[in-house]
Amino acid sequence: MSGVIRQKPDWLKKKIHLQETYELYKLFGTLNLHTVCKEALCPNISECFSKKIATFLIMGCTCTRNCDFCAVKNGMPDKIDKSEPQRVAEAVIKLGLKHVVITSVTRDDINDGGAEIFAKTIAALKAVDKELKVEVLVPDFKASASSIKKVIQANPDIFAHNLETVPRLYSKVRQDAQYERSLEVLAKAKSFSKNIYTKSGLMLGLGETEKEVLDVLADLRQVGCDFLSLGQYLTPSKNHYQVHDFIHPDKFIYYKNKAREFGFLHTQSGPYVRSSYVAHEYLS
Ligand code: SF4
Asked: By Cβ atoms counted within 10 A, which residue in 10, 118, 191, 201 is the most buried?
């Protein structure tokens, strides 16, 4: 669905200050690394980069899927670079991170969906600092048990997979994904390790109803999901799925309270919350 971008309300007027992003842009350029902060046009980029926080996007910045909500480009994916895990570790040392989030584009072109590269990146990070908290935000791996197990066996601290939206809207915004399959990813991760924390996230403002959101929260708890992030969807361009409504900050607080009642251990909920926003707070 495309159209005219709607006027944002007052609570969504965060500005990006490019001078605050310069140092990290330079570092990632030197190390030839990608971040989802830049590729997904995250509105928190100057806030996070000025605090030397970033979310790494591994296995290139071209996705094999073409979700209508996402700013990451689609097309022929990049070749896998075997030195990337080491370069991510180098960047983490330089930034002095204590909690790092690693995500990737969806790599349907690779047999295991890139699970091995995730595992190698986790291993490289744990090798430089065994106290480092490593969170992986993975694609659905088509719910392949062996891929999910490969990632879990590398011992990340948090295994995250975002449902992104309610099941009714999958055909409009996540065309190549399946709601039940994504739930299965989280269920399998939990079944492979009792110690793993699982996490998921939803974008709000795509046209979902309150009941649909609460049903998703119940489904997530059903598969043992521990952590939740809820944020406002923002249209990346006029060619992407358009914002249906702007959710008032009070409604985000309402959902956060509901999430607590459902039993989530920690929830971040607010207009500018993104899956990796203040990621270290989930474990504190
Ligand atoms: S919220 Fe996450 S994706 Fe956005 S700038 Fe911060 S670390 Fe990057």
From this structure: 118
